[in-house]
Here is the input.
Amino acid sequence: MPSYKAPLRDIQFVINEVLDTENLYQGLKGYEEATPDLMNAIIEEGAKFAENVLSPLNQSGDEEGCVWSEEGVKTPAGFPEAYKQYVDNGWPSLSAEPEFGGQDMPSMLGIVINELAGTANWSWLMYPGLSHGCIKTLEAHGSPEQKQQYLPKLVSGNWTGTMCLTESHCGSDLGLLRTKAEPQADGSYAITGTKIFISAGEHDMSDNIVHIVIARMPDAPEGTKGISLFVVPKFNVNEDGSIGDRNSVHCASIEKKMGIKASATCVMNFDSAKGYLIGEPNRGLNMMFTFMNTARIGTAIQGLAHAELAYQGSLEYARERLAMRSLTGPKNPDGPADPIIVHPDVRRMLLTQKSIAEGSRAMLYYLAQLGDIVERGDEESAKKADDLMALLTPIAKAFVTEAGLEAANHGIQIYGGHGFIREWGMEQIARDARIATLYEGTTGIQALDLIGRKVLGSGGKLLMGFTEMMGEFVAENDDEAYAEFTAPLTKYKDEWLTMSLEVGGKAMENPDEAGAASVDYLMYSGYVALAYFWAQMAVVAHKKIAEGEGDTAFYEAKLMTARFYFQRILPRTMSHKESLLSGAENLMDMPEAMFAF
Here is the structure.
């Protein structure tokens, strides 16, 4: 398994030079203390924790896995101790509200720390990772009593949180859920049902686990309109905030999985467990989107994390592994062969990994910034940021995880046969990465959300908000020096809009047209969105080189990677365009019986 080294220079480049974080946070109420110096210091400490504590547990955790018993779930050796250190160092409270013990730092900083921890050890991060969504849900929708009862311990990290949505018969179709919530005389509800695929549903790392659960109350409307939201603790909580008796919620089993084996994926049984309604009845799904959108951005970070880790391991191996000679003559004449990094195809894979990781980092940090603007900006800027988040969240979740999986697979390929062997760690990265395209809404689900609700459902308004921003960027950088990036960006921006209109027109006559186009449309959108962020990075690098400021080699490498992305990766959009415009007939015409032939 590659030893993780935090890419601090690139992180600082994105935060400080591309996204101009200092000016943004000085203008957002409550974030004035989030100066570059303070954030850099926090990030550097996060890097040390990720490199020195979490990374050494990554492969051993995968090999040991979790162990279920009737008493509970035992996590791999070192996991509880690492979590205690995480809590003692105050990491869980970084981006939470100060009223309940939070440090009130920007969410973007929390995303950076999650990238560091997740790249070092994604399975471990899943235990504290879902707590953030639990905290955000209670902050936004919980009653004052619920906030006081649960948030201090969740914010401190002494307790962790989960999201309990899925049931075995319904998957992503939450309108089919059967979990019941029966009202009780004391104002609580008896929650009965079984939830599956519950990450960190049971473990030995915290004193209590707070489950956010969707269930259906008696006489609730059918479908998603009848879903309510409840908080259900593993241990009931006394009025003074102390832990009381055990609630009737138990882990029936843990799944045997392809990857993320050190993360407990639980089947949870609720047997008239005591729960408490969050917000209004039958409004649960609306409130759950607070948790789901947080989780989707967190899952997008997984795509970035595995691209980065695969790239680091691949680069080290490619520099050291000797095989064959360069096509243009020996580059290592004193050795028996040249390092494989001299071969064009190996460089193609390395640059693909590099361009995915660095482009995704810029896009996801920007998305996190938008979340901070939604929370702390004025009404106009918050609305604009919210619209951009609505469009970009499904793109980020689906596209970045698909691209991260591709990068992980390239890692195996670069190692050759050794990539298939466990000791090198590359096959674990690929196994761990595979789930990211599935949970928190599959790529297909995200694609339907993008094209159906966000683009066509808004009448194109959300898309035009983003493309107008792209146009403004091009206009502000109308310089021949940047034309190799800005000119293609303009072309793709216009094509994206025209293509959306064409798909929308077809979908008005036949709704299957939207579904048939959806995944290709999302991938097209992802490549173009990433191009926008690569263009921004290229322009900054150009300016820094012209000014003779900073590390010229770093900026030159950034320009070369941007050029690779525009010339080698962005043209993939052409095949997606042809495919999505081919229509629904080639998918829907075949009778179901003929699939057997």
In short: The two ends are 44 Å apart (CA to CA). The chain has a mean pLDDT of 96. The longest strand covers residues 265-278. Residues 408 and 430 are 5 Å apart (CA to CA).
